[in-house]
Structure formats: structure tokens, C-alpha cells
Amino acid sequence: MTSFIYYRFHLMLTDICHSCEGGKPSLIWLSALFRMDPRLRGDDRKQSEDDKKRTIDITQSVKITWKRCYLAFSGLLFLFSKNTWPNSCGFSRMFLLFSMKKILNRQNNLILGLLCFLVAPVLAKQPIIIDTDLDKDDWAAIAYLINQPQLDIRAITVEGAGASDCVHGISNLVKSLQYWHRTDIPIACNNQLGMYKTHFPSTWRNPGTNYFKKLRAHHSKPVLIKTDAAKLINEVLQQSEEPVVVMAIGPLINIAAAIRLDTSLWLTKVKGFYFSGGNFTKEATSIAKYYPKTETQTWNLFIAPEAGYRVFKQSLSVVLNTHKTARLLHNNNSMYENIDALNQQHQLNRFGKIVYALQSSKNNYWGDALTAMMLVMPEVCRYQDVRMNVLFKPFQYSGVSKLSSEGIKVHYCKDFNLPLFQRIFMQKMSSSNSQANDEEKRIQTKTVQNQRATLSRDGTY
């Protein structure tokens, strides 16, 4: 009987090991476990001598397979638990303990099977899409996210109406992905201008172009460049078996176009929508100016107001980094001094080098990097739930975000922990970022769901 148990667990382990390669645990092993051989269900049939010999051979094969999986899983978790999954340290220690045993017994095999089932979901990475206009703080956000091994960046799309046009934006992005050894990420750009044929001010456009012209990447593999940004976004959503997080840190032209192509796809596949922009007001008339932009309006909604209006009509799970919090990171001397100190000490990694090259002491901003950290480590903010909509009427008002009981529910960053943000971000830009990983693990012990469960009656915590 025990031989057939080994055989069924062998099927289970084989399936789990194969499925873990794609980060998608399978449930085939459940059917294998419950479809036990009739002899295990109490039938009186006797085994033939050939059956006995076959099961002995299977047993020996299974023992070897289990031992290899012990070593494979323990090595994998030991290498990545420090830098990746906050919940995997205990598993890695347990696997290593079992791996050190010279003799594998049946009890250990059973425990290993259960642990494989528990660990397999942990191995899965969160797929995300980044929609950006490649401004200075966008580069900081992208560098921070690419340096997160628990994320699977499926695509980066560029908004040509924002801080970069498509010619310079795509060229600069290709060079940076080659420099970061991430040529596996497909990219695309939409050169459509905003509502009034406008884009960001010309003096802001294409930051870092001179730097990128001189940047030489040793990783010269080509980057896949798609011609349609909206279609690329929807292709990623369609092909993903897991829900996808979308982070938009530029005008929403690509996002609105993708939603228009397939609204139902967005409602079923988008797990969360993170956006840099919006500034709540109770009376639209106070900032109801369509051109030029007033101080209280945000560029990402002002440039393409119709796109913002369409996106915020959808029932998405929205998390906002608004003008109120983002502006606190505009010309932040402390942020620049810290990254400048890392540069002078030759401690910047390849992500930090690009971020540093695009900032300056008199003109630096990091707002979109906060949006990125909200995605990875939501504990950096205190949140409040409100209802809002984006108002738009041609030649009357443009991209006004207004609190409204009839609007969609959004989860916005009310205020944030600046020292924590600065410390974690700089550690991720450092050539030795193990401290950032350890601190993120400690902070991430409380999940977003647990945080939201602690919301007080007034919507804050």
C-alpha cells in the first residue's frame, strides 16, 4: 500500500514542479491523491508478483525524485527569500532542514508535498503594466519597480503627449532596458496629442536625451517595439492568467483607448489601477479653466481631460497619488542630497545611475516614485476612501477632479511617511540593497487588506 501512496505523491510532485516553473500551482495533484488505487480503498484484490516488483521500482524512483526536489526547492527559496518573498523565510529554513537529512523517510515526504502546495503560490509574481510619459519622476518610478523581483513587468507603454515624444521616448527607453538587462519587456508609444493639440511645455520635453545618447549598454539584445500602445496593453491582459495591476503615471490617452477597445476585459482582468494625478475640489468653478493650466490642476488630467473622464467612469479599483502628496516631492533637497551622496561614494547601482543622471539640485521631483512605492509597499501612506469623478466640458473646464457622491470610489494617499519613503527608495538605488529588502519584509507583515480592515469610521487609519 505504501508503494502506491508513493506513486500517487510522485504524480503530485511532478505536476507541482512543472507548474511552479510558470508560477502557477496546479490542482491536478488533488485528483491524483483522491484517485487512489483500489487496493488503498480496501479492495481485497491481491497484488501479482509483477505488480509488486513494479511498485518497488517506482518507490526507488520516487525517493530520488523527492530528494532532488528537496534540494531544488530549498536552494531556490534560500536564494530568493532574502530578496523577494517576505513569507518564504520560514519555508526555506524548513526545506534546508529536511535537505540536510541523509535518509528520507515517508513522514518527510508527506510534509514536503504539503509544503510544495503552500509554497507554489508564493512563487508567483504579480504581473503589472506601466503607462508613462517618461518624465524625471517616471524614470525614478520605473527604476524602483524593475528592481523589485516579486513583480513581473509585462509591458511599458509611453504617452507621447506627456514629457516625452515617441521618437525620443522609445529610443531612451530601449537604451535603459538594455542597460538594466530587461530587454524581455515589450514597449509601445502613442504619439497622439492632448485634447487641445497640446503636450507638456517644450522646455520640459524629453528629459535626459543628451545623457541617453552617451549611454552604452553592454546588453545589446533588441527590445520588442509594438506599434499600438492600447493594443499592447490589452494583449497583456488577455494573455495573463492572473489579474494584472496597471500603473499610469502620465496622461491617460493610452489607458482610455485600451478601455474603449475592450471594456469588459478591463473590468475582469485589472486587479488594481494606480494613478498619479487628481486634486480634489468641491466646486468645479474654482478651477474651471480649460487653458492654460491653473496651479491646482494636475498635468496628467489637464493634457487629456476627455481620457481622464472616460477612465474614471469605469468601476476599477483605483489608488491615487494626488497633487497634494506628489508636490511634497517636488524639488525635495533631502532626496537629491541623498542620491548625490550615493553617487559621490560610488554606491549607485545601475538603476540609481539613470535616476541620478536625470535629476539636478535645482530641478528634481519624485512624485511618481511614491506611486510606485504605494504599489509595492502600501504602508508608506495613510489612505482615505472617497468618491470622485473627473469633469470635462470642451472649452469650459479641463481635467477637474471633484469629490462627488455619484463618482467612483477611490483609495487615495492622504499623507505619507517621507523618511520611510526616502530610506527605502535610496536603499533600492544603492549597490547593496539588502537593507531595503529586509526593511520591506518587516513592514510588509501587515498587508493592504489588513490595513483596510483597520479603517476607522471617518475613513482614515
TrEMBL record:
Composition-biased stretches (Polar residues): 445-461
SUPFAM superfamilies: Nucleoside hydrolase
EC number per UniProt: 3.2.2.1
Domain of life of the native organism: Bacteria
EC class name: hydrolase
Keywords: Glycosidase, Hydrolase
GO terms for MF: purine nucleosidase activity
Inosine/uridine-preferring nucleoside hydrolase domain segment(s): 128-392
Region (Disordered): 432-461
Name the record gives this protein: Inosine-uridine preferring nucleoside hydrolase
